[in-house]
Amino acid sequence: MVRPGRAKNVLVWHVHGSWTQAFVAGRHRYLVPVAGDRGDGGIGLAARSWPNAREVPLEELKHEDIDLVVLQRPHEAELVDRWVGRRAGSGLPAVYVEHNAPRPSPTQSRHVVADRSDIPLIHVTDFNRLMWDNGRADTRVIDHGVADPGPRYTGDVLRAATMINEPLRRNRVVGADLLEPLSVYAQIDVWGIGTADLRTNRGGVTGRGDVAPPALWDQIARRRVYLHTARWTSLGLSLIEAMLL
């Protein structure tokens, strides 16, 4: 039984750096899973400095006193079942935060928790709530955002900046295929998870890797323009971040 008023132990995977940074700034204790290969099972803190969060190896989760799990990807419920030994929803209070617009389309995308009444479904924009088939899930909107980093823009580096996580895997959804042709007109620096290996055959696209704020904000603010390539999205958190600079 979760007692109201006390700080909770919240299990949450580090999936979207900026969203997670804002989320773990709360008053609770945040347990961030880390897998041995730092892959889909959990990347841990990924060198972030979050005072209220700590890494927990997957195999140690069963020893933690967890009050709530925040699911963000379809396979995380199975990870909870396997490593925590409790079923998300019926055995462990859970919510599912959906960051993305539906794929492949609004008319053919039923959410993974659409048939669950024990896991509330949280969308980060009203657009996403409208476009997903939410079924009978208790559905809410909590707009995503970041703490305002203050005015930083200088534009002294004559290049374009963009932030894309896993551009090679997500490709056309995030518009990664547009980077190469656009780089003919302006050299492009790309920050985010999985960008260090980003290469092109022509033009000037440079993957800068996964850099944590505030160093990330300082670098983005020095580029002359921000490039937003996503084809199918609501108001993305990376764009919000760039607009605040």
CATH architecture of the largest domain: 3-Layer(aba) Sandwich
How many helices? The count is 7
Unreliable segments of 5+ consecutive residues: none
Question: What overall geometry do the principal axes of the alpha carbons give?
Answer: globular
Number of strands: 11
Distance between the termini: 43 Å
Helix content: 10-25%
Spatially, the strands of the biggest sheet line up as 3-2-1-4-5-6-7
Largest sheet: 7 strands, parallel
Specify the CATH class of the largest domain. Alpha Beta
Commentary on this structure:
This protein has 245 residues and is an alpha/beta fold. It has two domains: 9-141, 3-Layer(aba) Sandwich (Rossmann fold), CATH 3.40.50; 157-244. The protein contains seven helices and eleven strands. β6 (121-123), α3 (126-131) and β7 form a beta-alpha-beta unit.
Which key terms come to mind for this protein?
single chain, 245 residues, alpha/beta, Rossmann fold, seven-stranded parallel sheet, four-stranded parallel sheet, 7 helices, 11 strands, 19% helix, 20% strand, globular
Quick synopsis:
By secondary structure, this protein is α/β, with parallel strands linked by helices. The chain is 19% helix and 20% strand. The protein contains 7 helices and 11 strands.
Topology readout:
Elements: E1 9-12, H1 17-23, E2 29-34, E3 53-57, E4 68-71, H2 76-84, E5 94-98, E6 121-123, H3 126-131, E7 139-141, E8 157-163, H4 167-170, H5 179-182, E9 188-191, E10 205-209, H6 215-222, E11 223-226, H7 237-244
Parallel strand pairs: 1-2, 1-4, 2-3, 4-5, 5-6, 6-7, 8-9, 8-11, 9-10
